[in-house]
Amino acid sequence: MKDSSRTPRPKMAPKRPEAVTFGPALHNAWQLHADRISFVRQPLAPQPLLIDARPQPIEIDLAHSALVVVDMQNDFCHPEGWFAQKGIDTESARRPIPVLQGLLPAWREAGGAVVWLNWGIRADKRNLSPTVQFKGKRRADAVGYAEHSPIDHGASLVQGSWGAQVIDELELAPADITVHKHRLSGFWDNEFDSLLRQQGITTLLFAGINTDRCVFSTLQDAAFLGYDCVLLEDACSTPSPAFVTQGVLYIVELLHGFVATAAALRLSLSRS
């Protein structure tokens, strides 16, 4: 006899296949479904963060912000790097290290993106103008771009070389982004602008070296391109005279963006 006391097991609806995504970020992707392709993006929830800055306090959206760390590389910062072997004092280049060691973990933990913007040139130097090549060498007996120093760690600042790597004291995380440049500004002749826009980044906070050279050149171009720009003055450094930095800070506050500190940013992160 059939046991009528048993409850029939309900039929399960067939499991729908999950959508496949196509895009550079989860919030900027198409969704491929069984019956359609969806162009509808999944927006990121805003993450407002208030930071003390000059000339006014600012509120950024962590979900659309990136900390850009400029040129903290062996050839500039290491005692056996290209600059040190040229006789250039590395003290100023190393000054941002402890500041960044404190800031980076807090920034990442809050969900902020990190971009390492590094010199990384072609070994054949074919896209480096005469001006760039001369300013990197200046004398016939000196060591220039893509050349070998007496303590030979490889060709100076060539992409993939020891000298082009970020110094060991600063840790790269798997989610960090690395962009190679071959000009003072990080926006020339590479993918930096496209990469930021595809990730939905609208606000850039700048750290690294040198304040008046690669940092300022990149920040200025970022402002020209419509990004929100914040210079973290205690996370930047330069061997140039103090009045040069004061001039950069003045111009940034006046025209290009805002000046804040890593200390103020960390304080805001701790309160969020």
Mean pLDDT across every amino acid position: 95
Helix-strand category: alpha/beta
Work out the strand percent. 15-25%
Q: How would you sum up the major sheet? A: 6 strands, parallel
CATH top-level class of the largest domain: Alpha Beta
Kindly report the spatial arrangement of strands forming the biggest sheet: 8-7-6-9-10-11
User: Could you list the spans in which at least 5 consecutive residues all have pLDDT below 50?
Assistant: none
CATH topology value of the largest domain? Rossmann fold
**Overall number of structural domains:** 2
The CATH architecture of the largest domain can be given as: 3-Layer(aba) Sandwich
CATH superfamily of the largest domain: Isochorismatase-like
What's the SSE blueprint?
Elements: E1 20-25, E2 28-32, E3 37-38, E4 48-51, E5 58-61, E6 65-70, H1 74-77, H2 82-85, H3 91-94, H4 96-109, E7 113-119, H5 130-135, E8 177-181, H6 192-198, E9 203-209, H7 211-224, E10 228-237, H8 242-256, E11 258-260, H9 262-271
Parallel strand pairs: 6-7, 6-9, 7-8, 9-10, 10-11
Antiparallel strand pairs: 1-2, 2-3, 4-5
